[in-house]
Amino acid sequence: MAKTFPKVLVYRTVLSLLLVGMPSAAHAAGKSPAGAAVLSLVLPGLGEFYAGGRRSARFFLVTEGIFWSGMATFRFLESYRVDAYHAHAAAHAGIRLKNLPESFIKEVGDFESIYERNRRERFLAGEHADIRTETGDRIWEWDAEASRIEFLDLRSKATSAEQKALLFIGGLILNRFASALNAASIARKSRTRDTGVKFLVDPRGGLYASIQRGF
To answer: The whole model's pTM is what?
Structure first.
């Protein structure tokens, strides 16, 4: 009997060493912060839904919808106003602006006619003047000063709509990064703190478990 007890003690000791630090199942079920962040970069709010933060998920999804609506609205206004000042130039200055460079379109608004533009260029640059051809489909001449001023106003409104659309695009980008950071934070908080189970041997005989939790 005396020889049997040491063997039992050895077996129990080996068993305790094998089971030291056994991780809990709850910890393994934690959400991945990186995965949550990636999901929110794809669609703001999606990472929060994955991590369990439904309230903030709804906030980021609604914000995303508002930004998309704003961008689409101002893109439409930009396109509408570009068409408007193109039509105005064709009707009142006799020139079609489609496919013309931005620098040329600016001069159409700045000068009463191509002839005035070239006269000013000759006066300022002399023999080095960059003279535009006064034939073909690039000739313009406004029928009235009021028409030219209205063209400038329409063009300014188109530019304003373009800038506002770009602001909403910036909002879409910021919303993604903010949602990614928030989703990762929620996922980290959802993870159970490390928990381990240790089986220890009582020298007097017997086996008992010790649960340890990291803080």
So the answer is: 0.68
In the numeric block, the tokens 């649960």 are attached to 211
Domain boundaries, the chain: 1-29+195-215, 31-93+144-191, 104-141
| Mean per-residue pLDDT pooled into runs of 10, the chain (215 residues) | 47 42 47 93 95 94 97 98 98 95 95 94 86 88 96 97 98 97 92 53 54 49
